[in-house]
Structures are given as C-alpha cells and as structure tokens.
Amino acid sequence: MKIILQLVLCCWLFLPVAFITTLSAADENAKVARAIFAGGCFWCVEHLFDSINGVTSTISGYTGGHKVNPKYKEVSSGSTGHTEAVEVLFDPQKVSYDELLRIFWVNIDPTTANRQFCDYGAQYRSGIYYFNEEQKKQALISRDRIIKTKSFAAPILTEITKAGKFYPAEDHHQNYHNTHPYQYKFYRFNCGRDKRLKELWGSK
Length: 204
Known about the structure:
Largest sheet: 6 strands, mixed
Strand content: 15-25%
Number of helices: 8
CATH architecture: 2-Layer Sandwich
Radius of gyration: 22 Å
CATH class: Alpha Beta
CATH topology: Peptide Methionine Sulfoxide Reductase, Chain A
Helix content: 40-55%
C-alpha cells in the first residue's frame, strides 16, 4: 500500500509539469490578432471574412461614434456617429493582416463617402480601424497600393483611423448569412453589391 501511495504521489508531482508545459506551448502557437473593417452592411462583411481560412471568428457591430452601447435603430438613424463594422479575429500564422486588407479593398466601393451600394448615410461609410502602429502602417501602404493600381478614376475615400470602442450588434444580426440565407441573398442581390464590385474590380 505504501509503494502504491508513493507512485501516486510521484505521478501527481511530475504530470502537471508536463501538462502545463504543453498548454504553454499551445497558447504560444495559438495567438489571435484582431482587426476591424467597415464596408457597408455588416452582414455582407461578416460573410466575406467568414470564408477566409485563418479567420477564427467574426462579430458584427458598431464603431467610430459617440453613443455608448448603441442599438441598431439608433445607428441606422445616423445620429450616433457609428458605422456598421465587423471585428475579425484571425490567426496570423494562417492569414496575414496584409492579406485581409487586400481582400477587404476589392469587396467594397471605396469611391463613395457615407454610402455603400444601396445603403446611404454615415453609418454605412467604409473604414479600416487599426489597433497599433503596425496595422496603421500596413493599412496606409495597402491604400497607396490601391491608388496606384486601380483602373477607375474616382478617388479613394475609405477612412483609416485608430480603433475605438467596438459594440457587438444584437444577436439576430450575427452570422445572418447562415441564419437567414434567403433573406440575405435577396438583400445582397437587390442592393447591387456584386454588380458594382464587378464594375470596379472585375474578376478580383
């Protein structure tokens, strides 16, 4: 009995060390970065980034305004200063911030101020909201790259500014393209989003 107790004690002392080491390594390899993008209706922006390998989570919400804990009706009225946006959590080992920026640009209309496709108002302005100086640098470089390579004459009006407080939208707005697929497809088609994107970016 004494030998058994000694073996149990020995295992108890040494196994946690290995277990903690394994967890620590896993945490080190599983770092998640954040980004915030606004490109009109957040249903469409969320759908876009959900399809990207390396994106671990997307949240539709509101940012860039002055109202604390805004509701959808308040934001849609244009009185809060907020824009509809999506917070993107991603694994930088699988997809870089620069790649997310490249995908973002060709899925918005950067030539319009306070509007995206059929949605009008400052609450639908496009934007990139950076969390640190490195993201800011990459965002500005990506904008300059678009300016140099775009095939259309209109200027780029998408704002690039420091990320502020992000407020998640109501539950029924989350993952809308999956929870309401027919309503989502109807909205997207009638808003002319894909038609305008093709006009601007071609097959990109």
